[in-house]
Structure formats: C-alpha cells, structure tokens
Design a protein that fits this description.
260 residues, mainly alpha
Amino acid sequence: MTSAVLSAPPPERSLAWPVAHPLLWFALIAAAHVATRVGVSSALKWDEAEQMIWSQQLLPGYGTQPPLYTWLQWGANALLGPGVLALATLKQTLLALTYALMWLAAREVLAPRAAFWASAGMVLIPSLGWFSIRDQTHTILVTTMACGAWWMLVRIVRYRRQADFAWLGLFCGLGMLAKYNFALFAGALLLAALSVPEARRALLARGWWWTPLVALLVVLPHGLWLLGHLQQASDGTLRKMEMGGRSPLATGLRELAIAW
C-alpha cells in the first residue's frame, strides 16, 4: 500500500473535458437528483423538517448534533429561499463534493479512469447511494469531510507540504462540526497511518503542528458552547442509546402490562 501511495500515477491519457470529465458527471448527477426531489414532492422527511426549524437562525449549537450542516442550510435558505429546493441543493452538492474529493484522492495513486471508478463505486454503498438521497443530513456532511481528510493524508505522504497539513486540520475541524463520531474516523485514520513507516515519517515531518492547530481553531467556538450546554447536546443521544439497548420483546411485554 505504501509503495502505491508514493508512486506516481500510471501514465494514461487524461479524460477529455468537458464531455467525460468526472467533475461534470458528478455535477450532472447532483442536478438530476435535485430536479427529481423537487418534482416528486414538497413534503419533508424527518431530518429535512428538523433543518427547516434549526436553520431559521445562526447559533453556535443546535441540540444533539454539531452545527455545521445547519449553518450551511441557513446559507442555502438565504440564497434559494427555505424549502425543498434549498434542502435538495445543499444535500446533493455535498454528495457531489464527496465523490469529487474521493476522486481527487484516488487520482494521486491511480490512473484517471481508475480514479473515476474508485469514486463512482461509492454509489454502491447503501448509505451513500440510497439512504443519503432519502433522508440524511449530518451523515452526508461527515462523509464529505472524511473524504477530504483522506485526500489530504495521501498528499502529505506523497509530498510532505506544510499547506497540506493545514488543509488536513481544516477538514478534521469541519468533520467534528459535521458529526461528533468523526473523532472515531480520525483516530482510526491516524493509527493506521502511524502503523506504516513511510506514512509515520510523513506525518511527523516539518509543519505537522498545523493540523491540530487549525482543527482546534475551527472547533473552538462550538466547543465552548458545548461545554456550557453538555446536557442539552447529550440528552437525545443518551435516550436513543437507552432505547436501543432494551430488548424489544421485554419492552413490548412491559408496555402491554402497563396498558392492562
């Protein structure tokens, strides 16, 4: 894996622009999904309705989820007006950006055509190819930031540029503002990279400190809010965990006994 990351992409003629360029395909697919969503129904799914409520104003925090998606939705509402069009446009833009970032990462180590299929193949992942179109918000955004962090890590291993360390910190900070479980991805990514000698040397190269510094600066404002509203931010999640930990049979019997 290390030799593949460090080696140059195999020589292959680049895909022609604009007929076959991957970014064009990603944009066209996103536009088609927006048109389909707007044309099918004006009714809102659960996450969409929640965003319409939260995004009425800019706040440092919103309930149990980090605020970045709601901030972006606020901006989309300001440009397009609150409604299905703004909801679908933001969601599909993030999905297209997810595929584009994975394509950029794959392009560092693969030929252009192979990089395209490596990115397009993510549509076979149910959470991206289906559930994200139906009713997901923060999960899409955190996936976008994960792909961006992966792209920057590959660039750091290959080029060891200080600017890439800063970009990695930005993606990690935004990932934490997208969904708190991004910390699990970041930790796993770091441990995996440190287990590879070449990647470990690259991550400890000059300028490594840009990553934690930028990430901290990005997360700090919301982090201060979180410290003062910890119960508000955690109550909903703890209730879901408690409900998920119960036996459905035992819960049903208990509710039946109470009803009788």
